[in-house]
Structures
1.
Amino acid sequence: MEKIKIQNEAKQLEAKQANIGGSSFFEVFAEGMNITCATLEGTTFHDVNLSKVTITDANLSDLEINGAQLGGAYIHHIGLPPEGHENFVPGAKQRPLTFEHCELEGSRISNCNLTNVEINDCELTGLKINGILVEDLLASYKR
């Protein structure tokens, strides 16, 4: 495979139906880049600014986000593809998500399926479920 090296230059690249596997980008500006119908499996992003990035209609299975600032993030419509979507699989079950050591103060979870969700060893001050303080629920339960 031919290797193209661009260094200290301003270029706009357009790749269509191309294999650019194994490519590396170091200290680059790529604002406004558009990636459509691409396989990025196994790709690593390290020390990157992904603010204002939008990811839609994506398979993020086994995604790991570590040491990231997510303030203001809007995460919605997460789960398996719905019936009618080309990737819908009848009877498929969503694998569980894991949140560990996350700062979620002031966050809001609404209209979510929380069946069998476990919350362990977490600071619950001010946490409400349907407007009811969890601390009050736990105190009542312990009585």
2.
Amino acid sequence: MMAVLRVGPLPEGAVEAASRFHADLLPQALALLPDPPHPGEALTLIFPSAPHDHRAWRLAVLEDLARAAAPVRVNGVVGDDEAAIAEALAFLEAAPGVTGQLLAVGPA
């Protein structure tokens, strides 16, 4: 089973966005993680498109959550195209070995 958390809106600046995420949305993400963790469960964060300087903090969050939540898988999808996001979610649902990744998607 995959839980999904939509992230946003966030400030345009990477530092401000990371700060807001950690203050407001990280507690929500942590609350979605099963306790105790069970293999086969997953959490995917959906981030809106943003400039390239947001990638580092987003990936660091996903990697840290994935390590802390194992065996629960934690990944992220970046994009604004709902069809592409749905395809990425379907891919992640069927990919039990993928965790700690940030996938950027766009229209086909």
